[in-house]
């Protein structure tokens, strides 16, 4: 039988919730006030017959007094508290923190999973388990959920907010139309297990207050944490068309003697007026705070199992962690594709599309955290499942890093298992070297820096990894921070992938690992997607500290080139030592009278000559706005001194990213600004050996279905 907190603290809270004084309880039960005081302080416990009288006075069943796993429902029911408008007339038309990111589902997955990683319980050396659940509610199931969140109380606030002609109001208006016109509401739940949970008081410093009550408070003192600005949590609310997130937390440390089913709801709306009364913006769902001077203020409450189920917040186990329920989830990035009337397209919030984007985002950003090697456990396990009215619609899909990033995962796995080599001599091997990062001293703390040795891993590329010849960099939490192309590679270089492990990712025994971790974390912007100059970096270190990062990049690229360099004898035998000088990018101009039209154009070209004499080309295309309306045909020609350039056929032409190849024609993904493809020429159509000529690649243009 589940047993809750000690009798004394539990009884004291019940008296607060019912606004009953100790003297009143003593009179109702037939004891002295001193006896009630002794119960509350733990100096004594009531007899069995007295417990029955206490239950009657508090309007509880006797079993609740014995288990003490829930609170009395008498007197102070769960309700919404809306923050009153500012006395000075100030108005905020939305939560500014929600606009710090391009808050689509990919960004939400990145930020929310990063937060779960940061809260992983390290003492048991087990991974944090993160599950994303999409659940489309319709019909009676949707009606029951609206009742559970007291929708009738919320609707006047939504109606007022939606009537405002500003960005947040328009998003809310679209969310209301989606729910009422299509009888449909999408919930997105993010569960983590083996994490800390939202510990601490409702208002004082702690994880709970940092997430639920505050902005710009990350509560992450560990330099290895991914977050540092306290902004990432805002992506949860930004992903809700209704600005509503419900939370159920199982705590790793007891609060008020309890750990299970700590619930709270937070609503972020713009300033609004309801029945002539102004409201500032946020609102909270909870139990009225009996200790507050303002009787309307609410705080978190310990819910029973039926309440948790009605709110779609039931957790699969009692492992500590938190469940966030995004109500009215949508993919913000797709709003640009809405119809002229402002309603979303049918595909915008399709469950299949949202499911796929979540899986891809997790695989792209957290493959390293999910990789294991030797006796090392992964830091993260992640999965995505999709339901309709609580029933399985798409089977739960566990994200496998070897599927989404096979080459990079292979590299990290070899490092963790101690199976790296000094130089690659066979396919599948992983080469490892160290590169220096000179960590500067923190201002006012001489000797706080030193030379860190980051670990660089290089292995041959695999198609699912995306663009080849990239360096993916990360630090201790193993979340991808940046991915950059290695410039000026000799065109005889075999395609590769490289991974740079800096800070604690290089190993706790790496020199100055902790100092490098703190330095690099300070150099990351709120998106945590690069290492560069930031205001905090300038203030904590020096205005020129960012140059150390530039030096790390230079040293990394140099080390990569040394590892992937083609041996001189191989260059001589294949005739590819100076291939780059024989490779040209060309294009076909728009028709006369149409000179203002921006066309997709080749922006970068890389190639090698294979042992069979075929040109192997990797090309990147810069796509203008609206570029998906252009269909482009890549044409390969041999460079000759005079006369027309002979056209060679493609033996193979495949899409790499943001496009697809249909009958030899590139079709660009909607909204993509860059795309890439890979091609191999047909040697039988070469009129001159590749080693004796150059190659020109052109993009031929056409409108609609023409090539």
Mean model confidence by pLDDT: 83
Percent in strands: 25-35%
Global outline: elongated
Main beta-sheet annotation: 12 strands, mixed
Q: Spans with pLDDT under 50 lasting ≥5 residues?
A: 223-230, 334-348, 569-578, 587-595, 703-707
What's the helix count?
Answer: 19
C-alpha termini separation: 72 Å
Structural class: alpha+beta
- The helicity comes to 25-40%
Notes on the protein architecture:
By secondary structure, the chain is of the alpha+beta class. Helices cover 27% and strands 27% of the residues. A hairpin with a 2-residue loop joins strand 24 and strand 25. The radius of gyration is 30 Å and the shape is elongated. Mean pLDDT is 83; it is low at 223-230, 334-348, 569-578, 587-595 and 703-707.
């Amino acid at each position: 039988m589940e047993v809750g907190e000690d009798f004394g603290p539990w009884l004291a809270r019940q008296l607060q919730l019912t606004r009953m004084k100790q003297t009143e309880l003593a009179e109702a039960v037939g004891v002295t006030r001193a006896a009630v005081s002794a119960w509350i302080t733990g100096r004594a416990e009531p007899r069995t017959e007295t417990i029955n009288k206490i239950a009657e006075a508090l309007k509880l069943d006797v079993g609740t007094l014995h288990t003490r796993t829930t609170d009395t429902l008498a007197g102070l029911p769960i309700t919404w508290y809306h923050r009153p408008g500012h006395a000075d007339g100030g108005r905020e038309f939305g939560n500014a923190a929600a606009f710090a990111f391009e808050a689509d589902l990919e960004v939400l997955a990145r930020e929310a999973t990063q937060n779960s990683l940061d809260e992983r319980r390290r003492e048991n050396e087990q991974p944090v388990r993160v599950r994303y659940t999409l659940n489309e509610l319709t019909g009676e199931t949707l009606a029951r959920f609206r009742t559970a969140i007291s929708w009738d109380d919320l609707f006047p606030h939504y109606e007022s907010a939606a009537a405002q002609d500003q960005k947040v109001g328009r998003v809310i208006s679209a969310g209301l139309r989606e729910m009422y016109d299509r009888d449909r509401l999408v919930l997105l739940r993010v569960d983590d297990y083996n994490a800390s949970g939202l510990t601490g008081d409702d208002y004082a410093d702690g994880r709970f207050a940092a997430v639920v009550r505050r902005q710009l408070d990350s509560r992450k003192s560990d330099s290895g944490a991914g977050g540092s600005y306290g902004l990432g949590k805002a992506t949860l609310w930004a992903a809700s068309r209704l600005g509503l997130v419900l939370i159920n937390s199982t705590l790793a440390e007891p609060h008020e003697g309890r750990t299970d089913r700590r619930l709270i709801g937070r609503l972020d709306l713009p300033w609004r007026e309801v029945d002539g009364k102004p409201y500032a913006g946020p609102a909270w769902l909870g139990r009225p705070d009996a200790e507050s001077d303002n009787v309307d203020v609410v705080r978190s409450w310990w819910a029973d199992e039926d309440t948790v189920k009605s709110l779609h917040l039931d957790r699969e186990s009692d492992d500590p962690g938190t469940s966030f329920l995004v109500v009215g989830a949508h993919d913000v990035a797709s709003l640009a594709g809405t119809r002229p009337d402002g309603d979303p397209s049918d595909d915008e919030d399709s469950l299949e599309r949202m499911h796929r984007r979540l899986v891809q985002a997790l695989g792209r950003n957290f493959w390293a955290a999910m990789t294991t090697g030797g006796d090392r456990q992964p830091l993260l396990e992640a999965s995505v499942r999709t339901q309709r009215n609580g029933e399985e619609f798409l089977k739960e899909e566990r994200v496998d890093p070897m599927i989404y990033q096979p080459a990079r995962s292979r590299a990290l796995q070899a490092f963790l298992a101690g199976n790296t080599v000094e130089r690659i001599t066979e396919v599948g091997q992983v080469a490892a070297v160290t590169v220096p990062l000179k960590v500067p001293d923190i201002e006012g703390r001489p000797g706080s820096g030193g030379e860190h040795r980051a670990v660089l891993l290089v292995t041959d590329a695999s198609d699912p990894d995306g663009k080849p010849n990239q360096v993916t960099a990360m630090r201790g939490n193993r979340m991808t921070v940046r991915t950059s192309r290695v410039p000026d590679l000799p065109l005889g270089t075999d395609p590769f992938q490289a991974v740079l492990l800096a800070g604690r990712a290089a190993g706790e025994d790496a020199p100055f690992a902790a100092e490098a971790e703190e330095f690099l974390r300070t150099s990351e912007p709120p998106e945590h997607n690069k290492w560069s100059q930031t205001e905090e970096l300038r203030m904590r270190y020096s205005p020129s500290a960012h140059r150390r990062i530039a030096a790390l990049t230079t040293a990394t690229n140099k080390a990569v080139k040394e590892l992937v360099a083609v041996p001189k004898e191989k260059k001589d035998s294949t005739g590819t030592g100076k291939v780059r000088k024989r490779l040209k990018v060309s294009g076909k101009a728009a028709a006369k009278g149409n000179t203002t039209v921006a066309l997709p154009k080749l922006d970068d070209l890389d190639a090698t000559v294979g042992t069979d004499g075929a040109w192997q080309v990797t090309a990147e295309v810069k796509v203008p706005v609206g570029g998906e309306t252009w269909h482009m045909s890549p044409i390969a020609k041999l460079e000759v001194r005079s006369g027309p350039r002979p056209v060679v056929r493609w033996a193979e032409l495949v899409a790499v990213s943001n496009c697809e190849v249909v009958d030899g024609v590139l079709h660009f993904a909607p909204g993509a600004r860059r795309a890439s493809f890979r091609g191999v020429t047909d040697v039988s159509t070469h009129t001159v050996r590749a080693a004796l000529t150059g190659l020109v690649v052109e993009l031929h243009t056409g409108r609609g279905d023409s090539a």
